[in-house]
Design a protein that fits this description.
Order of helices and strands of chain A: HHHHHHHH
Strand content of chain B: 5-15%
Helix content of chain B: 40-55%
Number of strands of chain A: 0
Largest sheet of chain A: none
Number of strands of chain B: 4
Oligomer: heterodimer
Distance between the termini of chain A: 146 Å
Radius of gyration of chain A: 45 Å
Structural class of chain A: mainly alpha
Distance between the termini of chain B: 26 Å
Structural class of chain B: alpha+beta
Number of helices of chain B: 3
Largest interface: A-B, 48 and 40 residues
Shape of chain B: globular
Helix content of chain A: over 70%
Largest sheet of chain B: 4 strands, mixed
Shape of chain A: rod-shaped
Chain lengths: 312, 92
């Protein structure tokens, strides 16, 4: 065989296959009744089949979550681009710059997710194929199990059982590892997805559909401001257009109207500062001004006069 | 002979291809021993490519243990080491 002369260096391939065989043999050795081996193994195969199918479903769930996040990020990127365009059209290059820098970080997250998405898709496909292969092997095992049971004659049966068992055991080991790998990858991606959810919630990447972000509110404020200016200009235009008409068509009774309008315009608006309500008592102010520091109260001019008044 | 690529399935490979596979396998093993990541990746990739090219996939309903088993294509060197020491990686 090809192994000739390589006794010292067996090679990775052979060693791995021996590890698998050793594992199968240990399991076989534990069984005393060959029939028990077959039935027990079959039960474990069915369990593994359930597990691998659940694994496929789990990976699919993760993939869908990543898909959802990718959509959100894409929306964010699009929205930020729109905001940048709008900001630029309003002459706010600083805002546009901020929007574009957020867009770039959303974009890099998106690229990262795309790679993860591809990975998950790969795992899902591999696991699906593994599940189908295992199903075929389990079916083959069941057939063989029944045959062996029907023709059960000690030594010969034992050999056939061992063959069937090591065949399925290798497959089970392989599938078991594939499930483990998929689970590990999914767990990693779940952690990343969780972190990304937090990042999006924090508004750094502009959570679409979440709270309003600051760029948008500033843009809104600016456009609201320009709306106010426009309305103001419109009103002013109306006013100047209407004023001469009113004088012309007022007649003898209408003479006082323009004066009234002027008066109301002259009145202070609602935001005029109110007059101070608190005025300190004048006497107290005077005391403070006239009283020299450290002088006793009895020496104050007002109080000192009192006894003199009583005497007189 | 039957060769399994973990995560991929079994292939029936002609005995004539064995020498070439064995050569690549020796390189793979040496890379693992020297912890040479680049050589490891390259050797594993060519070994797998060779098996896929020379071998015919074994029908899924055939229950036969493999003569040789190869690590899956994204294996790290660390995973292969664990695979060789019979601990952890193979469940059950």
């Amino acid at each position: 065989m090809y192994m000739k002369g390589t006794a010292a260096r067996m090679g990775v391939m052979k060693r791995v296959s021996l590890v698998f065989k050793a594992k199968a043999n240990r399991a076989l050795d534990k069984m005393e009744d060959p029939r028990e081996t077959l039935d027990y193994s079959y039960q474990r195969q069915l369990e593994l089949l359930t597990k691998v199918r659940r694994g496929v479903a789990d990976v699919a769930t993760s993939r869908k979550r990543v898909e959802l996040q990718m959509n959100q990020l894409q929306q964010s990127a699009n929205k930020l681009e729109d905001q940048a365009r709008k900001a630029l059209s309003m002459g706010r290059e600083d805002l546009a710059r901020e929007a574009l820098s957020r867009k770039s970080s959303a974009q890099s997250q998106l690229n990262d997710l795309q790679a993860q998405y591809a990975q998950l898709q790969g795992e899902e496909e591999k696991l699906t194929v593994a599940s189908q292969r295992l199903q075929a092997k389990v079916d083959a095992f069941r057939t063989r199990k029944e045959t062996i049971k029907a023709t059960y004659t000690a030594a010969e049966a034992q050999t056939r059982i061992n063959e069937a068992f090591s065949g399925i055991s290798e497959e089970m080991g392989d599938v078991g590892m594939a499930i483990q790998r998929a689970e590990d990858k999914t767990a990693q991606l779940q952690a990343k997805a969780g972190a990304l959810d937090e990042l999006m919630a924090s508004g750094v990447l502009d959570d679409v559909g979440g709270r309003r972000d600051d760029i948008q509110s500033e843009l809104d404020m600016m456009s609201a401001g320009s709306d106010v200016e426009r309305d103001l200009a419109r009103l002013k235009g109306e006013l100047t257009a209407n004023a001469p008409k009113q004088i012309e068509g007022s007649g003898p009774n209408g003479g006082s109207q323009p004066a009234q309008a002027q008066a109301s315009q002259a009145q202070p608006g609602p935001y005029a500062p109110p007059a101070p309500q608190y005025t300190p008592p004048q006497q107290a102010e005077q005391y403070q001004q006239t009283q020299p520091a450290g002088r006793p109260a009895a020496d104050l001019p007002g109080l000192g006069d009192q006894p003199q008044d009583g005497d007189g | 002979m039957i060769v399994r690529i973990l995560g991929e399935g079994q292939f029936r490979v002609d005995e004539a291809a064995a020498a070439e596979l064995n050569q690549l396998d020796t390189e793979l093993e040496a890379a693992v021993e020297r912890s040479d990541e680049d050589k490891f990746t390259a050797a594993l990739a060519s070994l797998l490519a060779q098996v896929r090219a020379q071998g015919a996939p074994l029908p899924a309903d055939i229950l036969e243990p493999s003569d040789l088993i190869l690590p899956h294509e994204d294996s790290s060197m660390d995973e292969v080491r664990k695979l060789l020491t019979d601990e952890g990686l193979i469940p059950g």
